[in-house]
Amino acid sequence: MNFLHLKDHSPEVLQYIVDEAIAFKQGKNAGTPLAGKGVGLCFMNPSLRTQTAFSIAAAQLGAHPVVLNFGGNTWKMESRDGVLMDGDCAEHLKEAVPVLSSYCSILGLRSFPDGKNWEEDKLEPALAAFKKYATVPVVNLESATGHPSQGLADWMTIQESIKPKGKKFVLAWAPHTKALPMAVPNSAVEAAALAKMNITIARPEGYDLPPETMAHLQSLGATVEVTSDTDAAYKNADVIYAKSWGELSSYGTVCPQDSAFRNKWTVDEAKMAKTNDALFMHCLPVRRNLVVADSVIDGPTSKVLQQAENRLHTAKAMLSFLAATRTSSTTPSELSYA
Ligand code: CP
To answer: Which of 27, 201, 204, 254 ranks highest by number of CB atoms within 10 Å?
Structure first.
């Protein structure tokens, strides 16, 4: 079995993993289900939290983690089929993934979108190659469309902090100097839906999340409101989850950089004052005073460090779950958790 996207697993399995993560955090889970095994953590893009959390999680479960920065401490990898490899990619994933599968019991991949063509990016060619060529379970460490380990850590953080059912979760779009991927906002709203929260997406016109995400929210029975009215969105919110992402209708284009636009969307004290003393959440890394004012991220309801810490516990729960499967083709029904 793989762990590629939240939508691939039932809400019951995902709740089980969150509960296991809480048990790890409370010291109630012990054991080394990955004793003597290798865990290969492959990165096509930078990472602080994901790389460190999964490395430590693997080690604490008894495994030997290996971090591979493709094109850094390894050959640069080609993922497209049928191309003439006369560029800077020296190795194809068709060989690399089976080779890594022969050394490792679990493989992880971080692979961001190129940001030029959404129809191509959303196919996630590198993750698809891992899924196709790996003979061991694969975990998505953030792709073009999802960041499942972040979503589970977000859900865990909310569950630790409030009784989420029926509470107001606001995904608050925020300004940035780059057109960022939609993986984190997708997983954040999916996590909120799994926690049975009422979701409001506050974003500028044109910055809608992909239809596939909205369809998944609908399939989870979530109540979702989409608005560009920040006053209405922040009013009585219980969670403000700030995140920037790029405009789908003008893919790869950076948002306006003028101060009026920034002032409308940056999370600040005046907006937070409209909320129900809301938790402030962000996946990190964050650009201070662009995405969120210092006074909010440093304030009493900020959960960003708790979210980051929970990445370790959810990584342990996810790796333990995958350790129970021997191959990438094991199905949830073959496990006792389903
Ligand atoms: N939130 C998150 O995934 O952080 P990194 O990019 O540092 O791994």
So the answer is: 201
Question: Which atom in ligand 1 lies closest to the alpha carbon of residue 52?
Answer: 8
Atom of ligand 1 lying closest to residue 283 CA? 1
pTM of the model: 0.96
Pocket test for ligand 1, best of 43, 49, 304, 312 (most atoms within 8 A of CB): 49
C-alpha separations of 240 from 18, 163, 188, 213, 303 in Å: 21, 15, 11, 19, 10
Per residue in 49-106, pLDDT (tens digit) is: 999 999 999 999 999 999 999 999 999 999 999 999 999 999 999 999 999 999 999 9
Say whether pLDDT at 338 is over 60: no
Task: Return phi, psi of residue 150, to 5°.
Answer: -70, -45
Here the tokens at position 320 are: 């333990």
The architecture (CATH level 2) of 150-306 comes to: 3-Layer(aba) Sandwich (3.40)
Look at ligand 1, atom 7, and give the residue with the nearest C-alpha. 48
Distance 157 CA to ligand 1 centre (A): 16
In the numeric block, the tokens 């890394």 are attached to: 285
Q: Domain ranges in the chain?
A: 6-147+311-334, 150-306
Specify the CATH number for 6-147+311-334; select among 1.20.1250.20, 3.40.50.1370, 3.40.50.1240, 2.30.30.40: 3.40.50.1370
Residue identifier of the C-alpha nearest atom 6 of ligand 1: 47
* CA–CA distance, 317 with 338 (Å, rounded to integer): 15
Helix/strand/coil for 95: helix
